[in-house]
Every structure is written in structure tokens, then in C-alpha cells.
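Let's practice the habit of predicting before peeking. Look at the sequence and jot down your guess about where helices and strands might fall. Then scroll down.
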Amino acid sequence: MKLAKHSDTAVNYGVVQIDADEAKARKIFDFAKKMGLYGITTEADKSIDTIEKLVKEYDIRVGFHEHAKNPNNANYKVWDPNYVAELVKDRDSRIGACADTGHWATSGFKPLECLRILKGRIISVHLKERAAIGKSGPDIIYGTGISEIGAMLDELKAQGFQGHISIEYENNWDHSVPDVAQCIGFVRGYTAKK
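Done guessing? Here is the structure:
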């Protein structure tokens, strides 16, 4: 397998549609189990009953990914951390949020407050830095924007977060390695000070 050849381990899969039909959903969970994944990321909130059944059976976590608010689609609700918190509150504890700090900022939320809303229900994090709240914009280097990256890391630690953090940097695609390295450097420097 290509991952083993490079001494890499896959941890999450998605964002993928999980069908409410159990036979179709089971294919996603079978794949995740075969890959030894920690979690699956989805936006399939209407499939919550099937998801919960399979989470219990496979012991694989599911995080609802929160892309930005879509004003043209009133049925799309997983952008709102309050909605996700309500959706998962009485469900198996392995079901929660794939917290995307950049999309929260675009949707007008303060990412640190969103982490607090979802306390205990964060499965994984897509960590992004943004220049402004309530505006779409490119990702920027950690520590240079409004996202309070350090405070978010502190909050996750205080919550006992055990999932995975993905450094997402969807900017400067052809030459992003130096920028991503600076983001990694920020995290390492911040955590070393603690």
C-alpha cells in the first residue's frame, strides 16, 4: 500500500456523503475499517440514525464538517455549530463535529466561541487562519489574522480533545510549502512555550 511505503497513516476520510440507506452507508464504513481510520467526515445530517448505528458497530467516529453558510440553500444547516451541537447532543459520543475554523469565520462566527459551543463533541479540526470575520478570503499564515490560533489550541487541550488537527492552507497552491511550514512553526513554537 502506498501509505505504508511512505510510513504514513491515514486518519480521516471525507468529506463524503453517507447515505441513509444502511447497505450504501456500510460501504463507507467498510472502507474506513479496512483503512484503519479514526474517523469519517460528512455533511449527511439527514442520515444521522444510520450513522449512529454504524458508529456503534464499527467503532469509527463521524464528524459533521461545517463548510460556510450557503444563503442559496436553506436546507444546508451544518455550517452552524449550534445546529451540529443540537444534532449530536443525544447521540453516541463518537458522533460530533469536524470543526473548520476558516469556514466558521467566513460564516460570521468567532472560531474560539464555536469550539466552546461544541465542547466534548469535536471529532477533528480543520485549522485555518483568516484575516476577518464574516468575509470570504484566503487562508493566511497562523498568527497573522483574527482566529486566535493559540487560544484555540488551549481550548482544545482544556477540553481533552483527542482527535486530529489538519493544517489547512488553501492559498498559494503552487508554492504553499513555505507558508505551511510557517503554520507548523507557529504551532510548535506556541506549544513549546506552554
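How did you do? The chain has eight helices and six strands.
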